[in-house]
């Protein structure tokens, strides 16, 4: 499906703003959001762009492989930055996303300064404002720019644009770091993270693309969409899954009947993102104004942001009670 005129207009605004930069470093995860942003920034900035992929023990191996492949295909300068688990998240605290981004994006800002590139970009989109995203507070505090969000692009539009540009990851399922597979408060070890990554790799090799393997010590809890349940429960395949996961050290292999609800390994923390006046959204201040006929895009950004603020405040109050 080709992008609509409204989507194409928002993408044109994105390119226009990117062309006004002197240069940028892009936090590149290999997912569809940062892939589209990489393609746009490459078109707008050329060699004045550096893509950096953070490689930590909790980064899925498939994400690193996807990032390397796409950066090579686009001819973009690409740095793999290996980092250990930050001390602040070794106990997998509820605010892990904030602490992780605060530490690692701080390092990316240092790289940007050393390279003489004034701006750090990341790939949040407008749909992300409707979810609890504690890590976005660090993005705001550090002044990292979120051009897809500022342009009002939502996930479905990003996938259509990525498909139209021939990006291999256009239909890649949304992912998250491996820390989300462990309960809050669990001690994080590289061995535990490798076991989770290996288990999810096994399931993907069997054709399950949208999945999570939650790890609770000796118990593995598999989450898949409803349409994948019948196949996973076939006797022969079920035996393969159980045998292979037990070989990784799991004693119990279970299926979560609540079905693929991201973030359910533990309750979200009651973090307050602060209001739009108190913090301000980290969006490009010079984003080109909407042309006639694109006012709905600007209105959508306004309501998405204020809805996100209200959602965060309600969660903060609820989890403090």
Automatic annotation (TrEMBL):
Annotated source species: Desulfobulbus oralis
Gene3D superfamilies xref list: HUPs
GO molecular function, one term: sulfurtransferase activity
Any Pfam family: NAD_synthase
Occurrences of domain NAD/GMP synthase (ranges): 20-79
Name by which UniProt lists this protein: TIGR00268 family protein
InterPro entries: LarE (IPR005232), NAD/GMP_synthase (IPR022310), Ni-pincer_cofactor_biosynth (IPR052188), Rossmann-like_a/b/a_fold (IPR014729)
Biological process according to GO: purine nucleotide metabolic process
Superkingdom of origin: Bacteria
